[in-house]
Amino acid sequence: MSDDPEIRKDLLDDGFSDKEIEELQKAIKSSEKLSNTLRAYNRAVEKADQQEKFYQRKISKLKQNIDNKVSAGRKNGFMKKAVSPSKSRSASSSNKTPVMRGVVTKEYDGDRIWVEPKSAPRGEYGVDVPSGFDAEDLNAGTEVALDPQNFTILDVVKESKDPDFKPVESDKTFSDVGGLDEVIDTLRRNVGVQLNDERRAKVDEWGLDLDKSLMLVGPPGTGKTLLVKALANEYDIDMYMVNGPQLVEKFIGEGAKKIRRLYSQARSGERPSIVFIDEIDSIAKKRQEDRRHGGEEVERTMSQLLSEIDGLDKEDGNQNVISVFATNNPSILDPAIINRCSAVEVGVPGGKAKKEILQVHTRDFPLDEGLDFGKVVEEVPEDYTGRDIAQICKQAAINALYSEDGFEDIEVEISDFMAAIKDLKEGNIGMGKEFIGQDNEFHEEIFA
Ligand code: ATP
Fold first, then answer.
1. CB atoms within 10 A of CB 199
2. Domain at 132, CATH number
3. Which range of residues forms the domain containing residue 150?
4. Do 359 and 396 belong together in one domain?
5. In a domain, 83, yes or no
């Protein structure tokens, strides 16, 4: 303010001396610094709150598991050493003997467990608790695989959760996302309206036909996945993440089955959930005249997806499943899917957004006090995304750690950023290297 010659003149006219004006300038600068520190502090508090919630949830889940185990152990009068499911699965899968299905009829009585085969010869047989299992897992009604020779229990038959689709845990929050405030606001409103009972009731009352899902459109590395992770965490909901190419199958009908399983898994939980499909263009292409090259299979997968979005298949379970898709190639999308989605653009960050992303990725760094991110941004190429900026920050920190000034009072300086940007531009760091990621075959192999 007092840099402005006019204001300065006014102040002089009002009787302020040069020294007083200088002190005023200093006071203003300190207060700006203070409010920046306050903002950073508030962000840190917000993030800490979110993380606390995340860990509280984890702790209460763990406590619940322990309580269940302890009470089941007491009920059975003893506790055996638990065996991890993967261990028990591998033990059973390596077992080549034929098995028969059976059911536990009476739980462990301190001596044996009673089972009944589901096929001849019928009858009840008393058997030992198989090694590697807890008696508590073998309650009456538990389906088991039996050895047909002596009816000993080989394994528990679980109506297992689909191993292909598990909820992804995330501790990301919106404070980890830079330069996308408007997008965040849109996501909050679109998802919030579906999860908030009062607003949902109004939507129904007013007969609004809301879009069933969201489509995030933007180049790779602009933060689409990051946004969805933060969204799921913010609303404390489960998130199922899949890459479109993972759903493309060689055999007719297989892709559609995977979609059905994915959504059925998402509906099976008690909490609302998000199904996030990245690279949706791989399965939601415009209808193809040419049915060769897997066109028919892709179409079937797509039809199944449409009916899941429309909710035609939600016969039971949790109805609150929100679909979020992402693409960097919207021009090839089938209008049928576009019409069902609210499209949200997640573009390459402009100057201000780049600065905010730099701030996010350096908030825990000891930065040189005089560091001006405006100057750093001037050197960052226009088409650089959030992913590139995260890479620059990482490299700048590494540069600082190896600077000749030593470890005492180490600070990350503008020169560290400039060196990182130069390296990234020249392809010495980052994913722009020609030997990675350029080859489609390599990409397809990962998701095969
Ligand atoms: P793709 O299309 O390749 O899947 P994407 O748009 O989903 O890319 P992300 O995977 O979300 O991009 O971003 C990769 C990483 O880049 C993030 O984990 C984060 O570190 C950084 N990043 C990207 N955008 C932002 C942003 N707006 N704010 C902060 N970090 C970002």
1. 13
2. 2.40.50.140
3. 100-156
4. yes
5. no
Asked whether residue 301 falls in the same domain as residue 336, the answer is yes
Average pLDDT estimate for 405-419: 86
Q: Are residues 339 and 373 in the same domain?
A: no
Q: How far is CA 30 from CA 21, 26, 35, 190, 373, in A?
A: 14, 6, 9, 40, 18
Q: Is residue 166 part of a domain?
A: no
- The pLDDT score that the predictor gives to residue 383 is 94
Q: Is the pTM of this model over 0.70?
A: no
Centre of ligand 1 from the C-alpha of residue 177, in Å: 9
Could you read off the pLDDT of 320-349 as tens digits, one per residue? 889 999 999 998 898 888 988 889 999 999
Per-residue confidence (pLDDT) for residue 161, from 0 to 100: 56
Question: CB of 372 within 8 A of CB of 198?
Answer: no
Q: Give percent of the chain with pLDDT exceeding 70.
A: 81
CA distance 216 to 227: 10
User: d(Cα 272, Cα 121) in Å, to the nearest integer?
Assistant: 45
Q: Which two tokens stand for residue 377?
A: 């941004």
Instruction: Measure Cα distances from 103 to 109, 128, 362 in Å.
Output: 16, 14, 58
- Ligand 1 atom closest to the Cα of residue 176 is 29
pLDDT higher than 60, residue 289: no
Claim to verify: residue 299 and residue 378 sit in the same structural domain: no
Is 221 a pocket residue for ligand 1 (Cβ < 6 Å)?
yes
pLDDT digits (tens, 9 = 90+) for 45-97: 877 887 787 788 778 777 777 776 666 555 443 333 333 333 333 334 444 55
Of the listed ranges 158-167, 215-224, 271-280, the least confidently predicted one is 158-167
Q: Is 273 found in the same domain as 250?
A: yes
State the distance from the centre of ligand 1 to the C-alpha of 304, rounded, in angstroms: 29
Question: CB under 8 Å to 447, separation ≥6 — which residues?
Answer: 243, 245, 246
Strand duo 153-156 + 100-106: pairing: unpaired
What is the token pair recorded at 238? 């489960």
The residue among 297, 320, 345 that closes a domain is: 345
- Centre of ligand 1 from the C-alpha of residue 360, in Å: 12
58 C-alpha to center of ligand 1: Å?
Answer: 25
Q: Which among 352, 387, 394 is the best mutation to test ligand 1's pocket, defined by most ligand atoms within 8 Å of the CB?
A: 387
Mean pLDDT over the full length of the chain: 80
342: three-class secondary structure by DSSP: strand
One DSSP character per residue, 270-337 reads: SS-EEEEEESGGGTSBPPPS--TTTHHHHHHHHHHHHHHHHTTT--SS---EEEEEEES-GGGB-HHH
Total tally of structural domains belonging to the chain: 4
166-198 confidence digits (pLDDT tens): 888 888 999 999 999 999 999 988 888 888 878
